[in-house]
Amino acid sequence: MNIRLSPLLPVLLLFVALCLPRPVTAEPFSPHIERSAYGWIDWDAGLIYGTGRAYLDNNGQAKTKALGAAQLVAAANIVKQAAGLRLDDRRTLERLGGTFTVQLKAFLRYQEHQRQLVLNSSRPYAEVTLVTPLHGIEGLTAQLLTYLRGKPLEWQKFPLPTPSQGRSEQADAPWLVIDARNLSGSQAVQPGLFPKIASRDGRILYDVNRVYQDALQQRGMARYVHSTADLGQLMAQWDDSAWWQQLSPVATAWAAEPRSKRGRYVVARAEQATGLTRTNLVISASDAQRLQTEDAHNELLRQCRVIIVTAAPIGGIEGRRSQPQPLRF
Q: What order of strands is seen across the sheet that includes strand 280-283?
């Protein structure tokens, strides 16, 4: 018996393949968390968390009053962490002067992350955690740039205007990954708001005056993360290949223009962290040349598509600060 296949079969196969759920490959990264007695900073998501505690016996045993006091402490602890943020390779935000530190309270926008009443303790207390963004329209970076524009004697470098016309950023554009895990201890890179990337011969590849303003405000100049993946694993990740492999040979032949493979990450290795605050990174001349070629093609630097993989400290995967004494009410 002869079986005749419908000429529409390839089209049907293509339709079914296109309806298959597209697999999502999870990023092989976990956030770099910088902790202190005041709270913590998530350098991947760009969020500052401040925790405040207030004891009921200091607030007339009134739970509502204790929660309000804890909220005030949490806000003050966010300001303390923000003041200690590394601005560039030479200074922290508090080094901008007393005026800016005072204005930080007005710049920051808080949301409540968590609240709790701990009543089964020998000394009952209320605890509140607030969070504020580094990025976005109301984020600290946008407020900081506005402040710096009014201080030409303190700061002269500003981001590029975002083009009103031209090619738009592709959602699947690759990210630059700088692997700095080989730098540890006193040589480890430190997260900063405006880091630089330079080649070994001194060429500046990445700086605050080489990125688009909208990208800087919305994304920040770099995400800081940890990872257990090696360089080969990162370089082998593709954005679409696994999905297209679901297509049958017939359906693939009928696809109009299958997308070519494109690396999800452009990977370079850090050779050195420089600057007084160790926020800058140096890469090899060959990596620098490859990076400039990639940026000319897809603007991954100007669009702030940068991930810095930091060394995990012994005993954990989180960055740490010295532990000052927290406020208590």
A: 30-31, 223-226, 306-309, 175-179, 265-274, 280-283, 197-199, 204-206
Same domain, 169 and 290: yes
Cα 226 to Cα 143: distance, rounded to the nearest angstrom: 28
pLDDT for residue 256: 38
Strand intervals (E) in the chain: 30-31, 33-36, 39-42, 47-55, 111-118, 125-133, 175-179, 197-199, 204-206, 223-226, 265-274, 280-283, 306-309, 319-320
- 70 and 206, same structural domain? no
Sign of the dihedral defined by the CA atoms of residues 151, 303, 318, 125, in that order: positive
Q: What is the pLDDT of residues 289-313, one digit of tens each?
A: 999 999 998 899 999 999 999 987 6
CA distance 215 to 159: 9
State residue 321's pLDDT score. 47
What is d(CA 307, CA 40) in angstroms, rounded to the nearest whole number?
A: 20
pTM: 0.80
Q: Which domain holds residue 229?
A: 159-313
User: What's the rounded mean pLDDT across residues 58-66?
Assistant: 95
